[in-house]
UniProtKB/TrEMBL annotation:
GO molecular function annotation: oxidoreductase activity; RNA binding; zinc ion binding
Species this protein is from: Andreprevotia lacus DSM 23236
Any Pfam family hit: ADH_N
Top-rank taxon, per record: Bacteria
A GO CC term attached to the entry: cytoplasm
Family per record: Belongs to the zinc-containing alcohol dehydrogenase family. Quinone oxidoreductase subfamily.
UniProt keyword annotation of Nucleotide-binding present: no
Keyword hit for Cell wall biogenesis/degradation: no
Record-given protein name: Zinc-type alcohol dehydrogenase-like protein
All residue ranges annotated as the Enoyl reductase (ER) domain in the record: 12-335
Lineage, top ranks: Bacteria, Pseudomonadati, Pseudomonadota, Betaproteobacteria, Neisseriales
Record's subcellular location: Cytoplasm
Principal location class: cytoplasm
């Protein structure tokens, strides 16, 4: 099968950073689905895994953790899907990724593709939808049916892939007042289209901007951009006895002592936890993705495709990685077919 892979971890401007390769087609066993990939999306996690380091792979390593496609075969223990089903999923970071014609993925982290979306539109959703859903509803414990309606949430990095879904979930399902950060005019327009009530610029003084909107504190904070840079401001803005959730790794120790006087909590969200540790509730991601698909088909949520980069090949994936590393994306970058 055709695939895009790496053997060495190189800067993205090196033509060998990602390579077009041919690999054996895998076979399904256990609870695995063999999926024929139709479309993929690219995420910051792809660039972080690929980032330069002093190691190499004896066999080509396939990256990619967002896909939509069709089930070609199933393992003997599969009960949730059958060949011919259209599916979408983010996959498992400990296994070969989706930048290939075929991929094996455990059925418990796969959902039925939204019927109203094409494969590219569906591929833009899984990783970010799972991350935003778990961050908002599992980590912050916001009510999904409006129990916390009217409370405020600050979403740092609102125009990115996760932020784009989080805004919709927070507004459409939870009924929160959404303040989203967006630095550029086009980013501000994007987050407002998705439902943000107000925008602030994360390159400027966050505390002053949020308070100029009339909010001394905010009830919830989702940090999807640069924990190190923003944490002090977020600690100042979070309401007493509330929670900050981040998905971004910190490069230096997080000064959690800033939260002590407020008895506030700091939590992290990593959507690969369930698959990485084979948790007992791993099937929740299957249920989550099916629920997201229903919300999309009902018109409650929309796909967050920002740009379509064409066919799945090494050159286009290198271009996508470079764009993500530049930090200028709005929504998701998708690619389709080999």
């Amino acid at each position: 099968m055709k695939a895009v892979a790496l053997t060495h971890y190189l800067p993205i401007d090196n033509p060998d950073a990602l390579l077009d390769v041919v690999l054996p087609k895998p076979e399904a066993s256990g609870r695995d689905l063999l999926v024929k990939i139709e479309a993929i999306a690219v995420n910051p996690v792809d660039t972080k895994v690929r980032s330069p380091k002093a190691k190499f792979e004896l066999t080509p390593r396939v990256l990619g953790w967002d896909a939509a496609g069709v089930v070609e075969a199933v393992g003997p223990e599969v009960t949730l899907f059958k060949p011919g089903d259209a599916v979408y999923y983010a996959g498992d970071i400990t296994r070969p990724g989706s930048n290939a014609e075929y991929q094996l993925v455990d059925e418990r982290i796969v959902g039925h593709k939204p019927a109203s979306l094409d494969f590219a539109g569906a591929a833009a959703l899984p990783l970010t939808a799972i991350t935003a859903w778990e961050a908002l509803f599992d980590r912050l414990r916001v009510g999904k049916s409006g129990a916390d309606a009217g409370k405020t949430v600050l979403i740092v990095g609102g125009a990115g892939g996760v932020g784009s879904i989080a805004i919709q979930l927070a507004k459409q399902l939870a009924g929160l007042t959404v303040i989203a950060t967006a630095a550029r005019a086009e980013s501000q327009a994007w987050v407002k289209q998705l439902g943000a009530d107000a925008t602030v610029d994360h390159r400027q003084d966050l505390v002053a901007q949020v308070r100029s909107l009339g909010h001394q504190y905010v009830d919830y904070i989702l940090c999807f951009n640069n924990t190190d840079q923003h944490f002090a401001a977020l600690a100042e803005l979070i309401a007493p006895q509330s929670t900050i959730v981040t998905i971004v790794e910190n490069a230096r120790p997080v000064p959690v002592e800033l939260l002590k006087s407020k008895s506030a909590l700091y939590s992290q969200e990593f959507m690969f936890t369930r698959s990485m540790f084979q948790t007992a509730d791993m099937i929740e991601q299957h249920r989550l993705l099916n629920e997201v698909a229903k919300l999309v088909d009902a018109g409650t949520l929309r796909s967050t495709v920002g740009e379509h980069y064409g066919a799945i090949n090494a050159a286009n994936l290198r271009r996508a990685h470079a764009t993500l590393e530049a930090g200028q994306t709005i929504g998701k970058i998708v690619l389709e077919c080999f």
